[in-house]
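User: Need the bound-state model for iron/sulfur cluster:
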Amino acid sequence: MVGMLTMRELLGQNGPLAAALDGFRPRREQLQMADAVASTLESRGTLVVEAGTGTGKTFAYLVPALFSGRHVIVSTGTRTLQDQLYHRDLPLVSQALGRPVKVALLKGRANYLCRHRLSLSLSSADLPGLERAKQRALARIERWSLQTDSGDINELESIPDADPIWQSVTSTRENCLGQECGEFRACHVVKARREAQSADIVIVNHHLLLADMALREEGFGELLPGADAVILDEAHQFPEVAAQFFGSRVGSRSIVSIARDTSVELLRAGLLETKARSALENLEQHVSAVQRALSGLAERTDWVALPDSVLESLNELADVLLALGTQLEEMAANAAGVRQCSRRALDTARRLVEILQLDDAAGLRWSENAGRNWSVEYTPFEVAERLQAQVDARPCAWIYTSATLAVGDDFSHYTRRVGALSAETLLIPSPFDYESQARLYLPRNLPEPSDRGYTSAVIDAALPLIQAAGGRAFVLFTSYRALAEGERLLKSALGADAGFPVLVQGEAPRDALLRRFRDVGNAVLLGTGSFWEGVDVRGPALSIVVIDKLPFASPDDPLLKARLEGLKREGRNGFMEYQVPQAVLALKQGVGRLIRDNHDFGVVMLGDPRLRNRGYGRAFLQSLPPMTVIDDGDEAVRFLQMHLGSLAPSKSA
Ligand code: SF4
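Assistant: Bound-state model below.
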């Protein structure tokens, strides 16, 4: 037992962590963060902390959280981190501290078998027309359902997560019957939430946390009322998730699934008579009518540009949904499944009417048109007020952390977005020696990014570095078009026997490409967005990171448009107050791929000349780790050769 030790003793040279964990090194930065987290837990305050790469931020919040003996919710942006915390970090820390704690990993409901929907699917499994493969998969799920305790669909490895069959046997908030469900007592979602409520530490994701904050899981027991603290890791992703969460969406897929589920439920209840059948057919016809009205329009169309025919067909669809919902309500009698379908139809009608009648000052509306599927969506301009109201309503500690939250040393961009204006902020620089471990190469004389020859100039500038290192590079692009052009140019410049493989995003799933990159040890990987964050490659396998342009979000992105509109309305400068800070944070993520531990070294090449010739360039440069800046390609090559030593190809090669 560790008794009443201080953070310094717990995380120090002679502390229990150092004794229990191989390779644990005390770090000043980690201790600083742990102290701040401990005092925030104590005071039930709000802390926003940026912890540079290598701080060891996971332990810096887990140690005080476990040591405090309080009920803590840890929320992450990704499944990978959720799993890592649950399977690796928490057991390690708990064992080292000698504090057995009850930990629960709570996933979204799509990860648990829904016993009610399984029985619905099985009852329609014999219907003619159902594919054999689907029938076989259902039979396998049924066998597994008899043995599983958790109902976590990951247990059934023979059916991958992405298999569409899971949609038929897992629930959504809309189609779940809640307390009216005959399976409620044995429900896996209910059980998982109950376990989470009684745990000391609960690991959730940002979406679940928001659902809990907004009380959108009525009847399933809430987590927040029992919590003393909420710690959000990967907190840079939280505002985006919140904007999606507080937005609204109505799409063809969910309406068609209402029609399908209604027909199965009515059949089960012996209520599928002619009138109901024709109401369902009518619904499907109106879904197709919207699709026809949208055909010919772009993939994404702003609301103001939608022709009257689209609005008329959407209004008619809302009427049809309303009529169906009312009709089902009258028929439902004792059939809980039919009642739920009625609620889904009415709820969808209500959301559709809301989107149709929304005030333009409240948010941005648009349509999406993807062949047979369509949707209409809305996203609010601001979510800060709502978030703040939720946070204020809970008297517990709130801790937001990530490696990228500040622009320079300013947190206001982030705190404004999450409504945590009065939070304490703390900036913890990375403990790595960037000045000697890394070079920031800013090649001179590259054309403007809008120039047609720009990507070619970037590849020309990066090529000598890649050749000097014998591969070992990430080349990150800000668009798919530039990625395709970069691939063509780089492959043709390297010729058939470059001596190292060139991997390109899209050739294989992301994780498989990363595994290959690590295994090969000298590959070059070309990618866009998904490789900018959450990628950890240590050692010389990754010695160069090339970034083609400053990562400004696409001006066509409706979310971006929504925010800019909102800022303009307030008389503020959207470019400087939103676009630049967002791009700074994204660039910090991309650059952060290079140096992952004390022994790493390498060169970051940023091609974009706007870093030097625009006033805002300084905001980017000041936010990056303190690497030595160079503008001479030969110097970059010498730096790589010096560090790679015998790993670098010989000069005549
Ligand atoms: S309560 Fe909801 S999730 Fe649970 S079995 Fe019933 S319908 Fe499925």
